[in-house]
Amino acid sequence: MWKKFPDCISFFQLRAKSLSILEYEKLYSDLKSEFSDVDIIVNDYWEFGLSANAFGVHIGKEDYLSTSQEERACLRNATSIWKGTSSHSIEDLQNLELDIWDYSGFGPIFPTNTKQTSNPTLGAESLQKALVKTKIPLVPIGGINSENFTSLFQFGKILPASISMMAEEKSLVKIVDFIRNHPHPVR
């Protein structure tokens, strides 16, 4: 479905945590073969993402903290790709190594069923505060749906993201209509 809206969906993140690395690599390869012009951010398998020359890599905060100094240097030196991490509080954002990251997922903003986490729901007010405290684009995550999506734009520069909203055509069309009628500086 998302392929119908290239003006509104510039890239997507391939999040398939239940797959082995070999299964993930095959899925990535299959997607790139079928949709060669679509940019993909590789989630978690960052070393593969670098070797595949993916559009970007996303490494969760907890996973990044377990990397070695050599691995961090490798990420820092990978300047041709987009790199993202996750933050679950304003304190997390303030502790980011800004010379590495191009964006941070921030949340969960709303209650979610797609990821089991011990992180508390932050709410839209925390997103508003976080946008003032950070210099990198934020991707609000967690419980984003077609009912609450549009309210997040009142806070300024965000990169909208959702799992469930992109999986249902009715929700996707509603969001595409909103984006097309409300130009936004970051996509």
The biggest beta sheet reads:
6 strands, parallel
Classify the beta-strand content into a percent band.
5-15%
- Overall number of domains: 1
CATH third-tier fold name: TIM Barrel
Question: Top keywords for this entry?
Answer:
187 residues, 8 helices, 6 strands
Description:
The protein starts with 10 loop residues before the first strand and ends in a 6-residue tail after the last helix. The chain has a 6-stranded parallel sheet with strand order 1-2-3-4-5-6. The chain has 187 residues and is of the alpha/beta class. The chain is built from 8 helices and 6 strands; from the N terminus they run βαβαβααβαβαβαα. It has a single domain, classed as Alpha-Beta Barrel (TIM Barrel), CATH 3.20.20.70.
Short description:
The protein has eight helices and six strands; from the N terminus they run βαβαβααβαβαβαα.
List the helices and strands and how they pair.
Layout: E1 11-14, H1 21-34, E2 39-43, H2 46-51, E3 56-59, H3 61-65, H4 69-77, E4 82-87, H5 90-94, E5 103-106, H6 124-133, E6 138-140, H7 164-167, H8 169-181
Parallel strand pairs: 1-2, 2-3, 3-4, 4-5, 5-6
